[in-house]
Amino acid sequence: MLMNQRTALVQPHSTEAEMSVLGSMMLDREAAEKVTEMLQPEDFYHPAHQILYRAMSSMRERNQAIDLLTVQEELRRLGQLEEVGGVPALVNLLESVPTAANAEHYARIVKEKSTLRRLLRAAYEIIRLVDEPELEVQQIVDQAEQAVYRVAEQGQSREFAEVGNLVMSVIAHFDERQHHLQEHPGDFLLGVSTGFRELDWILSGLKPSELIILAARPSVGKTSLAVNIAEHVAVRERKAVAIFSLEMSADQL
Question: 76-80, 83-87, 203-207 — which is least confidently predicted?
Fold first, then answer.
């Protein structure tokens, strides 16, 4: 009963932020590019806004201009112009946002509300699991963890990356490393040292946001190597380190 009462309530959303995002996309191409890296159509609460965002995202991918006239024609081509409220609705979107300068801020609000709705759905699912008499407690815990994990996973943008942009990013990395070596001969670190010189030379040190995986056959020293690196970072580099292990106890580590 509690669950039914809760689902009947209006779910978290911001109509104003959604309108501002869509209006910004029609005002400024750069804003459209930034926004589409942050949001998916499902992040919008209103179905009409989902349709509009999907159409404009598709236009951006095809390198088409995005403005009042082109969006109108795209929706007419798709047979969805009336679904979004017709031309007056498009004009209203443009009038709702004076400038596209805050497009990213509006997009973050839309994303946050979308995440809250997903969390709410996960909570409903967990409540339903608790009411299942045939499920063991551990099964409920496992499925609850999966439900929450899916929320976190869906919150990440998964757009295709253009090869040209990736190449430029790699070239910029090599240029940065070369410039660093020229200014500091013999110092090839761009991050935190692992304590192993040859490994530091290959990795340029441990850098923020990187995921480094140690892969090898069982019982060849993966954990020992990881602990040695962690010890060096904590003791020599004076950095905070956390170790999580699903195989060994704290005493064994």
Answer: 203-207
